[in-house]
Amino acid sequence: MPKLQIPFIITHLRWQSNGFEKPTVKTVTGKSSLQIIQQGIEDFQTQYGNLIYENGTTAKVVIYCSSVANLENEVYPFLHTTLKIDKSEILRFHNGGNNGKYKLPKNNEIDFKTLDLPTSKKRYILLVQIGKEGWDCQSLTSVILSQTGKSAAKNSIIQSACRCLRQVIKGKHETALIYLNKENHKLLDTQLRKELHTSIEELNNLNRVYQSDLIERFDRTKYLKLPEISFYQLKIKYQAIEEEENANTNEKLQNLLHSIDDYRTTSVKQITTIDKLSEGTIEILNKTGQDLANYNTWMQTIAKESFNTISVAQLYSFDTILKAIFDKITFRNPQTQQLYFNDAFPIHHIQSKIRIAFSIKRYLQTSEETIKKSAQLLIIEKLKPIEPNDYLFPNERVTQQIRDFDDNKITPEAYNTELSAKIAALAMEQKFSEIQALSSQTIDNATLQKTNPFMSCRIILIAVLKFCFRKCFKI
User: pTM score > 0.70 for this model?
Assistant: First the structure.
């Protein structure tokens, strides 16, 4: 079984979509780095010098330099002295070099982050080890890689070269320009073949599809009389109503202390033998428990379980009452003199009551509203034109045939009867070439199923599976 060429498929579908610019990759040999930069900038100025995109951003070119020293001492002076480029249109951005020798103004970082805004007037971007993977500047139109970087940079040349391939306005015909020296050409071509199963030659030969060549798509839901799906949306509104102006914590804690015995439960302990279950001794337990108790730890537990809505300091401001409650729900073992929580009291419930005492009493008011809604089975209200494709289903001919049947309200039987009559008439006149042309105008299977939406979906699914199978196995 041949290997699946999934990356190859993805690569070509990417550029066939309306999200990427058509790149032109140019390789310059026999010239120095600065000469390549000059040629690349002159080409950029010729093609994109006055280009302003619909969103107000200006076309930009990025020049990747091998080092900070090279950028500051060679490339930057070359641009504004030899090429006479205005300094206000040049942006330098790097890490400052060794020991911060080439420190940049603070505004440079802001300018770099706002390159894709209409307010940015920077058109010539000089970078060192920045602006590769993850950098998304859609108004970047050209890339110049005239120098050979270090081994680490060689692995990322595909990221650097492809920075200018994002479209500014999706669906518009936009182009990009990439300038390389001989070594970078070889590195990029190798990486494209290895990672994306394509090449520089294929990128240069990509055929863009213009708007006039796009295929229209049509909505047939009204003709098929597909009903909408009706459903009801339940809308619930919640409103918290406060019944108190303040928490009245002291009063609530006092009430809890006075009614603490109401929370007490009695445990019965019966000692007997298995053969005399009805006999034995019965003991009423008012104090029992095995969990050690500590007042300070208890206070911290209450604060913790409030999710810090109540602080320990707030609790200690009611120390007298809380200490009295603590004494009520604990007991001291006469033998070990250890303090334990009394299991006769629901400790967690009492702690909850204490926390509630610090809150304003509220009740939740709800209101319900039932809203009648409807939705379409298919989201096809605004179908956009698409690019031609060999695997498009139904194809243009069948689509037009279906539309003719819809518009003229012709049945397949009537169509075949009319076609037979035309062929018979032409046979009488011995117009055999026209008969041959008419004979090929048969009704496609998709047209026969045009009134059956479920059968149409089945046919479309089969077409999609065939497309994927052929692409994956390169049939």
Answer: no
